[in-house]
């Protein structure tokens, strides 16, 4: 009998094989889940957890009896996200024999896809899922970004100054898409001083690689401004298998809401 909906016990995968897959997924996801490094994470509360309490109500029209009124609680439903992948049965058997170079490329791609989807939902929103992202919620005008990354410190300093003027304290974090992250990390300013180190001193916080981010986002890390609720945290599950491959997936459920819209500012990707 299945222990839970992931149905892992039905997969033709040894205990050692599952340890390999879980560890590979953990390593890949830890690197790519940029949003989680900058927002408040609460949970996981389990697969059965279905909605986030918003603490607000709406009036219910039409009383059931005279002198009786009613309010409906507002909630934010969690969204379930899944990325499918396959693993060769031969590769898993070779791992059980001691092979160290197991091909898990499809798992790695699935981990990047689902991490990117989570990052996009948090930073840019997901209208169909009822999620308003950080850059959608902020009322602050975006800071234009120029192509010369040597000018990045001026724009980061301006973004931090705008947040401070709004009464938003630091430290601050910076989320960058892969291309921008690489450019920042590889750029040296005049005199050989690394651009990334200069930015960290301005922010007093981390620079985060976040696949899915468009442009860059500076946001406060003081806490309480950006709220991520996890139902089921990212987990591997079993779908089916055939003679050659095991069909698996990475799955999670979550909600996200912005409590303080003015606690972040977007650096657009064009000048």
TrEMBL record:
Q: Which UniProt keywords apply?
A: Encapsulin nanocompartment
Q: What is the name listed in the Swiss-Prot or TrEMBL entry for this protein?
A: Type 1 encapsulin shell protein
Please give the family membership noted in the entry: Belongs to the encapsulin family. Family 1 subfamily.
Chief location category: other
Please state the span of the N-terminal signal peptide per the UniProt entry: none
CC annotations in GO: encapsulin nanocompartment
Q: Which Pfam families match?
A: Linocin_M18
Task: Give the source species.
Answer: Arthrobacter crystallopoietes BAB-32
As for subcellular location, the record says: Encapsulin nanocompartment
């Amino acid at each position: 009998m299945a222990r839970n909906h992931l149905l892992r016990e039905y997969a033709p995968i040894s205990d050692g094989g599952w340890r390999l897959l879980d560890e590979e997924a953990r390593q890949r996801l830890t690197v790519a889940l940029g949003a989680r490094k900058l927002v408040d994470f609460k949970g996981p509360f389990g697969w059965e957890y279905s909605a986030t309490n918003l603490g607000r109500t709406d009036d219910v029209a039409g009383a059931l009896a005279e002198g009786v009124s009613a309010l409906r609680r507002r909630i934010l439903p969690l969204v379930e996200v899944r990325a499918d992948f396959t693993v060769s049965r031969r590769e898993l058997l070779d791992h059980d024999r001691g092979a160290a170079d197991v091909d898990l490329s499809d798992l790695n791609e699935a981990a990047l896809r689902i991490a990117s989807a989570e990052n996009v939902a948090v930073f840019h929103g997901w209208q169909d899922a009822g999620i308003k992202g950080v850059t959608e919620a902020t009322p602050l005008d975006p800071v234009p970004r120029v192509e010369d990354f040597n000018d990045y410190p001026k724009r980061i300093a301006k973004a931090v100054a705008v947040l401070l003027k709004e009464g938003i304290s630091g430290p601050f974090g910076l989320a960058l898409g892969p291309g921008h992250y690489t450019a920042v990390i590889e750029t040296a300013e005049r005199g050989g001083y690394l651009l990334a180190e200069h930015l960290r001193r301005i922010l007093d916080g981390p620079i985060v690689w976040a696949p899915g981010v468009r442009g860059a986002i500076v946001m406060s890390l003081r806490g309480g401004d950006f709220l991520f609720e996890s139902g089921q945290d990212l987990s591997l599950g079993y779908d089916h298998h055939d003679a050659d491959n095991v069909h698996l997936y990475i799955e999670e459920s979550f909600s996200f809401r912005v409590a303080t819209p003015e606690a972040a500012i977007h650096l657009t990707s064009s000048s």
